[in-house]
Fold these 2 entries.
Entry 1:
Amino acid sequence: MVDLNTTKSKIKMVLIGAGNRGRGVFGRYALDNPHKAEYVAVVEPDDEKRAIFGAEHNIPESRRFKASEDFFRKNGKIADAIIIATLETERLNIILGSIDKQYNILVEKPLGCTMEEVLKIADAASRFKEIFVVCHQMRYVAGYDIIKSLIKSGRFGKIIAMQHSENLSYHHMAHSFVRGLFNNDSMTPMILAKSCHDMDIMRYLIDKRPLRVSSFGNLNYFRKENAPEGAPNYCLQGCHEYKNCPYDVQKIYFNENTDPAYIRQMGIVKNNQELFELLRHNQFGRCVFKCNNNVVDHQVVHIEFEDGITGSFQMAGHNYLERRITKLSLTNGEIYFDTNEGLIQASTFAPANEEIIKPAGMESSHMGGDKAIMDAFVDAICTGEKKHIITPVEMSLDSHLMAFAAEKARLNNLVVDINEFESECRKKI
Ligand SMILES: NC(=O)c1ccc[n+]([C@@H]2O[C@H](COP(=O)([O-])OP(=O)(O)OC[C@H]3O[C@@H](n4cnc5c(N)ncnc54)[C@H](O)[C@@H]3O)[C@@H](O)[C@H]2O)c1
């Protein structure tokens, strides 16, 4: 049994799911901040990933588990916190097991694959006394934090409308949502898998409840009929179009700017030779026009919030630069933020004034949000002070409702009333 009372300047954690996010982000955090946190156990079904994570964090064999059921059954509470970084298909029982053992919890978004699952989790978590954080790390990004303070200052007046867009780079779209893990709504629709962060940041900045939602969007481009004639199923089977195709795997995965997260999702890949061999047959090597994808490649969502505030959101997967652009119109000013420029332009009408603010600390992964949310989680556990937790589960419930309601609106050509939608979903649990 691990002693939990030694010191609270450093916490002990368990990782469930040592994949891209688990090892690459949450594991990295402990390696970079050994004075704040350490892993004492890991649960991961893949033998190679479990062994590598165990070795990187000096976890003894006896605390490396293949299945969470085993981990919960064999152990009492052996750490201060659990980090859950499995796919969303593997969340519900793991969260309920962690609540049962009274662990502080940080769980990846989205909370589940259906609204019913999310409601079950939110209900269980609302009766829970420990810390429960949903990894909506955008709220912790310095730029959005500054915007929140500008709004709170009152100088800009009341929010009237918000325009927000998520511009996915063409290669991120292809990797994650055409070839990759999140390409099919049999798991999650795009609005949940990717844009639940955007629903969440709109809910957070506007700080009013959403009332009604409408949405349009479709899968326009990544379809079989758009494949070049004669293109093989895999790029590396000798596609004659490889020179012209931006999605050719040699351009996307062997580039000095390739996001390491892309490779981590393929498992443990030791070198480019191994990567090349994998891409001959794994899902990421497929022709982008010949995948089992069905999630949208562009979508708009319109939301009416309390107090008559309107929000509009646009996601598109055809962009050179990956960036989010946010613009708030207020009764005495406007606030504009482009994450690629990394600058906030904030103007008031009276006095007529324009300010340019450069937020600091937006360089590391997810614009600094990943480290910031982990810092807040660890500090809250160490100090017992929850005030820096700005992504508690009850606040995330609305963002999930917005995403699921938007998908219902898109699929059924409806305007969806959020309260009615929540009641309908509650009847099913
Ligand atoms: N917050 C963000 O910005 C952000 C970014 C990317 C992904 N995500 C989310 O993070 C989650 C993980 O994504 P990823 O890219 O790391 O995927 P991944 O497939 O690389 O990692 C998931 C890991 O969980 C393991 N696993 C599967 N079933 C398990 C179980 N029952 N118990 C324990 N481990 C299990 C898998 O073997 C795998 O190693 C997803 O829900 C995704 O939506 C969040």
Entry 2:
Amino acid sequence: MAEYSPYHKLIPERFEILENLKSLLYKDLKVHFNINYAERKLPVISYVINPEIEETIMITAGCHGNEPAPIYALYNFLKNNPKVRNKRIVIVPCIVPFGFCLHIDKNVNDVDINRDFFSNKPQKETKLLKQLVKKYKPTFVLNLHEDPDEEMFFLYLEGKGYRQKAEELVSLVSKDMKFYKRRKVHDDMVINGIIEPNESSTSFEDYLTKLNIPNFCVETPGLYPLKDRVKVHEKILKFIVR
Ligand SMILES: [Zn+2]
């Protein structure tokens, strides 16, 4: 467990939104475990819309705590009580609350869980995502991320059948945000807003791909104001669940 001084770095507003999420979702909410830090319990939760339906889309956010817009967007999205037909939606609104509350991309053990999916001793958060995938067998997974140092939007696409959906999503986002037409980002080439990665790594996306589960990892640019990024993530959520 990480050490902290009385002048620890927990951001009160971040903790508050996690508490608000818990109050909002009291029904069908599951607290899987808590991370103890600075005299607080930081909850790792999941929430299921339409639990009785089999066809499942899974949505995750908060893998990297320095990418906060998706968590705010999920809160707004759920607060509006979205009506979803014909699909079960499994949501993990903040998989690494420790990172979120401290605005860092690691968990309490200093591990980036998005590089932990093929390790011999996976972190609790990593194990939980794997368990949820095994339990619900999603036909599609949306992972909400941000790229703190980028100026424009892009997404990672895994799964050939979802190419058109990815293009539609980029077109939707382009109404609010610029997207990269052609640019190298972390060794991958973005073409018209979309990266189809060649090299696999040890991310959740790679884990899903090995299981033949199509997925998007969307990346809003951290150089846009937070409110614009939140708005775009809300739009993406509505688009994916409709
Ligand atoms: Zn990220």
